[in-house]
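Open question from group meeting: does this chain pack into something compact, or does most of it stay loose? Before anyone orders reagents, we agreed to write out a predicted structure and look at it together. Recording both the input and the output here so the notebook holds the full record.
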Amino acid sequence: MFDTLDAGLAWTAEHQVTGIRTEYPGGGAYDGAVSEGRFTPSKAHHGIPDHVAAFGPGSHHIHLTDGGRDQQTDAHGR
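Structure tokens returned:
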């Protein structure tokens, strides 16, 4: 976990990581989505442990190849 995008990218460059770096809210994906209004619980199973555990962040992500941003797959271009 990194406090800033730059810190995370510096670490991935140092370790030549290939994969996807995803931004997660500090309080958890489900709670963050609810508090930010990106998800509104509307069914009985919303909020139960199995539902919360399977919840994805739906946040910004960056594709990395050998520690650098993969501009061809980084759809957000950030």
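Observations to bring back to the group:
The helical segments are 5-14, 29-35, 49-53.
The chain is about 30% helix and 15% strand.
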